[in-house]
Write a structure and sequence with these properties.
five-stranded parallel beta sheet; Rossmann fold; 148 residues; single chain; alpha/beta
């Protein structure tokens, strides 16, 4: 049984982030609203090929809303399979940390769930990572799910 009324979880479509979505779905169950978010940077399409070549798996951040819609569809399926009853999805423009923190405020979330990807990497230590940054800045409880 959860004391949380609204749970937000972020996903980028990776298997590790979908593991965090499943965990959030199990936590929210039939007692909480679950909001699944996917941050993206809008793109007019001209840079899509270059982004894929340069960013590889991280190209989702600049591809626009079409990939985001598919990511959110898969995430919603995963959350429902884990037990979430009420699931809302949001494609949010902007950087992941800023987008998640704004969404937490907008929906008055009690819990923010993220995966731990990047938390213990060199880049994460030097540049910051989504889980570390949201844990420091969020105005609600944060659950960092061990996904890697």
């Amino acid at each position: 049984m959860s004391d949380y009324k609204t749970v937000v979880v972020g996903t980028d479509g990776s298997e590790s982030s979908l593991h965090a979505v499943a965990r959030a779905g199990g936590i929210s169950g039939d007692k909480s609203n679950l909001v699944i978010a996917c941050a993206y940077f809008p793109n007019d399409g001209k840079l899509a090929s270059a982004a894929t070549d340069t960013l590889g798996a991280d190209a989702y951040q600049v591809m626009g809303s079409s990939p985001t819609e598919e990511i959110l569809r898969k995430a919603k399926e995963r959350a429902k399979a884990a037990g979430a009853a009420v699931v809302d999805t949001r494609a949010v423009k902007g950087a992941p940390v800023d987008a998640l923190l704004q969404l937490v405020t907008d929906v008055q979330a009690d819990l923010l769930v993220v995966g731990n990807k990047g938390l213990n990497s060199i880049a994460g230590r030097l540049l910051g990572s989504v889980p570390a940054d949201v844990a420091r800045k969020a105005a609600c409880d944060v659950l960092i799910v061990h996904t890697t």
